């Protein structure tokens, strides 16, 4: 009975269901970080409806899109380069990354830099593996999976890679947050999250350019 009451309470806190939409209608390869602090970008799972804020970083990396795409999915190597997401726990059936990753794969991130002298953690789930180069972009994404399939915190993090001149890549990485019970707790961290996202992009740039 207590479990049923807890479930009912959690569902009462959940944001309203979003209307069905087709992420194929978005020109993902043409997205850029907004020039202002209030605009948001859609995500593959949730679209634009209910979005309230976001963080975004964008840069040119001197490496081909495929190398960056694979590095972002090589979760077992994050400790080698990523000063923000310092560790990723994966299911036991994942022996090699990026080769074994799959849509729907659960992940447990250990994150540094948001709180002084303490790491934080988050449950995530892989939502997109789009490596169709004929569409002129590569994209992978994951979303929060915190409590009841993300009920407590609705947010999704796409990484979009498009070819630039001279074999380089335009890297756009963002996380859009949606209205939900946990949003008032997360919004005060927006500035620090943005700083860590920017640093994560620089870490990635240094890492793949040295491969």
Automatic annotation (TrEMBL):
Keyword Signal: yes
Keywords (A to Z) from UniProt: Signal
CDD domains recorded: SRPBCC_4
Residues of the signal peptide: 1-19
Domain of life: Eukaryota
InterPro entries per the UniProt record, alphabetical: START-like_dom_sf
Listed name of the protein: Uncharacterized protein
């Amino acid at each position: 009975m207590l479990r049923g009451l807890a479930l009912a309470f959690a569902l009462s806190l959940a944001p309203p269901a979003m209307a069905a939409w087709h992420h194929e209608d978005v020109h993902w390869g043409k997205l850029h970080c907004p020039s202002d602090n209030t605009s948001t970008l859609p995500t593959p799972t949730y679209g634009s409806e209910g979005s309230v804020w976001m963080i975004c970083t964008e840069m040119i990396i001197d490496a081909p899109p495929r190398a960056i795409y694979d590095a972002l999915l090589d979760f077992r190597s994050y400790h080698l380069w990523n000063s923000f997401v310092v560790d990723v726990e994966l299911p036991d059936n994942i022996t090699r990354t990026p080769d074994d990753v799959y849509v729907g794969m659960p992940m447990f991130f250990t994150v540094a830099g948001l709180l002084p002298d303490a790491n934080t953690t988050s449950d995530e789930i892989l939502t997109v593996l789009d490596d169709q180069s004929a569409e002129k972009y590569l994209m992978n994404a994951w979303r929060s999976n915190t409590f009841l399939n993300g009920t407590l915190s609705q947010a999704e993090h796409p990484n979009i890679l498009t070819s630039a001149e001279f074999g380089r890549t335009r890297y756009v990485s963002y996380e859009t947050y949606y209205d939900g019970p946990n949003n008032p707790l997360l919004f005060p961290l927006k500035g620090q999250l943005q700083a860590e996202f920017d640093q994560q992009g620089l870490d990635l740039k240094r890492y793949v350019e040295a491969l």
